Fold this sequence. Notes:
Radius of gyration: 22 Å
Shape: rod-shaped
Low-confidence stretches: none
Number of helices: 2
Strand content: under 5%
Largest sheet: none
Number of domains: 1
Structural class: mainly alpha
Number of strands: 0
Helix content: over 70%
Mean pLDDT: 81
Order of helices and strands: HH
Amino acid sequence: MKKTIALSLAVAASLGLSACSKEEAASNVDAMENAADNAMDAAENTMDEAMNSAENAADEVSNAVDNVTE
C-alpha cells in the first residue's frame, strides 16, 4: 500500500510538472515520494502509540483486579 500511494503521488506529480525540466520534475517527484513516506511513517507511529496505550490500559486494569483479589 505504501508503494502504491507513493507511486500514485509520483505519477500525479510527474504529470503536473510536464512543463518543467526533467531534472526539476525528478526532484519534485522525489520530494513527493519522501512526503508520502513521511506521512505513512507518521501514521504508522500514531497507530503504534495507540496500540501501546491500549495495551498499557489493559495491563493497568489487570493489575488493579489482581490487587483487589489478593
